[in-house]
Amino acid sequence: MELDERKVKILQAIIKTYLETGEPVGSRTISKMEGLNLSSATIRNEMADLEEMGYILQPHTSAGRIPSDAGYRLYVDQMMAEKALEREERALVPKDDEHEKLLAKVDRLETLLQQVAKVLAYNTNYATMVTGPNYKNTNVKFVQLSQVDDTQLLAVIVVGSNVIKNKMIDVDERIPNDELLKLNVLLNTFLTGVSVKEIDLELIQTMKQQAGIYADILEHIFDGILDAVRQASETEVYTSGANNILKYPELGDMNKAGELLEVLEEKKALNHFIADDDSGVSNQYGIQVYIGDETPVETLNDCSVVTATYELEEGVRGKIGIIGPKRMDYDKVVTTLRNLTDELDTIFKNKKT
Amino acid sequence: MELDERKVKILQAIIKTYLETGEPVGSRTISKMEGLNLSSATIRNEMADLEEMGYILQPHTSAGRIPSDAGYRLYVDQMMAEKALEREERALVPKDDEHEKLLAKVDRLETLLQQVAKVLAYNTNYATMVTGPNYKNTNVKFVQLSQVDDTQLLAVIVVGSNVIKNKMIDVDERIPNDELLKLNVLLNTFLTGVSVKEIDLELIQTMKQQAGIYADILEHIFDGILDAVRQASETEVYTSGANNILKYPELGDMNKAGELLEVLEEKKALNHFIADDDSGVSNQYGIQVYIGDETPVETLNDCSVVTATYELEEGVRGKIGIIGPKRMDYDKVVTTLRNLTDELDTIFKNKKT
DNA sequence: GTTAGCACTCGAAGTTGTTGAGTGCTAACA
DNA sequence: TGTTAGCACTCAACAACTTCGAGTGCTAAC
Question: Is the pLDDT of residue A326 over 90?
Fold first, then answer.
């Protein structure tokens, strides 16, 4: 069977209506719509075909049809393709007042990202997530060891765009001032300008050797630093709007909703979205749409997830994403995400100069 | 009308049964229980009295009774009084395996507190919150300004029990090394050993004067530091187990649950629980029970909240708390909280030595 | 290929009756 | 005077049944 243009039009009509109403849509509803002038009977025939092809399904006999995952997929792909064409229209999108709200808090990256999640949730009425940028490609900018008191050293590491990590290191005895100075020189020589992912046990080993006779004493200093670096390269995830999940009956039953909340709270699972830039079809503008089973997290199999990529600086990227029901306003979501990443990119670019 | 002993016993029986079953409890159920041997008719009379006195209420005619807020209050007060007596029994409570789980991550206070919230949620099946300690009574331990690059200074401030705050400060030009040194000496002279709440505009003003001719240039350095201190004294709130809310039908309907989730996510509102150590009746062991309308947050008026106080060090305290339905296992919750705070106190005490 | 017509399906919603847990009241009892 | 048995009454919850209507698939005619 072939998927001719009329079938596609009908499918689109079905999906659009379903997205709006949330109820199975029947043949009469479609036949009454302007555009294609066909009787309900004809629509019925086409619908039977579409069902056979797997794009729609019937919750039960004598009910209308709802889109299947495959149906959504087709719809989204179509939409993304259209969006790619009408690109020039984008310049017209007026800046909304998110802009200011966002900028108000720019001083700390974590706060900003958390804020982004919140604004996004507020604007879309879906649950949202924002992953911190992947620092592995960033360079170390500054390292410093300071003596806080007799038994404690403080290691401060600044990487990339002013992300600061601290680590307290316990020591047995106070380190003489000049030794500390030497140590700082050593650390900066070895680490400054080096990308985070290059700092591994091996490099630390080399440094230990350089430290010469102090190597033993400095054992856990280096370990502490390695620790801080590792900590810096851990990706953090911010979420918001979890309560929005309850707004959609198809997700709102106690069991599903509970699991979803858990995933959002736990956050670890959401890391699955940051790695794979390859999978997923609609990869335009760095935007990816995962529908139902396409999501890498099993708990989210009844949801759709849309993610977009923002760039903090060359090669340092993170994702912002939306988690909602499969019956999601994909169009609006994609637009919103696109605008928001644009805005973020601008903020980061300006910030840097 | 007087609340004699028998009435109290009946009330307790009603509440206990209701806590277990969650269903309105009728006169027969109570009369069949061992303890007091009374016919259902007698119980009915007593119940009518209890209702008149406002301790219980009827969802509708021909249904059993459920406790009112006042009823819960009486019950909790009674329980707390008993607990105060059987104090010696506490030594017997076996350490459970939370202990190790907790200790595993002690290195960062934030991680620890987040973990505490999680463990508590896991053990009780309620939503939980943990507020960070109130640093206002802590002393500054260490301050340092470092030049990160030509236009940026990094201020590091360590307060109290190794809580580290960072602040990036933009400057117009590179500060000469010796000036930086002087500045650091100045900062440490003025700030080290001073409690966080004492650092205010005035003190900063004095420091600015001391800085002499550099005062102007250093304007936003000091501002930055004040900022960092303020940041340090902001109380953070960690939450967990939000999904547990959905487990209790009386809170689980979309509207209420949604609002609750919002409060838990927003966290700001939860700060209302940290201030008032005075209100609330059951103030033993630093444990407070807020029932229904007693909660300082309106959204939580259908919930009960139980909080306990932990002590990070002398005078530096925070709260851990549980948010659940009014039909909450108060006994278990109080015990769990008491054990957990005990454990925390031990951890912090050992850590310090 | 399209459409009107028709019999059929089946969930949703409304109706009705039954059940049973629970009540309040009264009268008798200890 | 407090306690209890007995009884009529109430009312949510449940199940059985009906009705309604949106929707279907199929067939025959255009």
Answer: yes
| C-beta within 7 A of nucleic chain D, residues 48-77 of A | 48, 51, 58, 61-65
Q: In this model, does residue B118 exceed pLDDT 70?
A: yes
Give the position of tokens 């933009």.
Answer: B170
Over the stretch A231-258, which tens digit does the pLDDT of each residue have? 777 788 999 999 999 999 889 888 899 9
Query: Across residues A261-272, what is the average pLDDT?
Result: 93
| B-interface mutation test, from A108, A130, A145, A166, most B Cβ less than 10 A away | A166
Which pLDDT does position A93 carry in this prediction?
54
Q: To the nearest whole number, what is the mean pLDDT of chain A?
A: 86
Q: CA nearest A143 in B: which residue?
A: B148
Q: Which of B229, B144, B224, B225 is nearest to B184 (CA)?
A: B144
User: Mean of the pLDDT values across residues B183-209?
Assistant: 85
State which residue of chain A sits closest to B188, comparing Cα positions: A148
Phi-psi map region of A287: left, alpha, beta (phi>0 left; psi -120 to 50 alpha): beta
> Where do the domains of chain B lie?
5-67, 96-133+236-352, 136-233
A268 touches strand C (CB under 7 A): no
B275 touches strand D (CB under 7 A): no
* A211/chain B closest Cα distance in angstroms: 24
Q: What is the rounded distance in angstroms from the CA atom of residue B340 to the CA atom of residue B322?
A: 12
B96-133+236-352: CATH topology is Beta-Lactamase (3.30.450)
CATH of domain B136-233: 3.30.390.10
Give strand D nucleotides closer than 7 A to any protein Cβ. Answer: 3-6, 9-12, 21-27
pLDDT of residue B177: 86
| pLDDT tens per residue across span A98-143 | 555 555 545 678 888 999 999 999 999 999 999 998 888 888 888 8
Mean local confidence (pLDDT), B76-102: 68
Superfamily grouping for domain A86-133+236-352: GAF domain (3.30.450.40)
* Contact in structure between A136 and A275 (CB atoms under 8 Å): no
pLDDT tens per residue across span B291-302: 999 999 999 999
Q: Which residues of A230-244 are buried (b: 16+ CB within 10 A; e: fewer)?
A: eebbebebbbbbbbb
**Third-level CATH fold of A5-67:** Arc Repressor Mutant, subunit A (1.10.10)
Query: What gap in Å lies between CA B117 and CA B240, rounded to an integer?
Result: 6
Instruction: Inspect the interface and report whether the beta carbons of B156 and A158 lie closer than 8 Å.
Output: no
Bridge partners for A318 per DSSP? A310
Instruction: Give the list of residues 6+ apart from residue A346 with CB closer than 8 angstroms, or none.
Output: none
Residue B168: its chain A contacts at CB < 8 A? 107, 162, 164
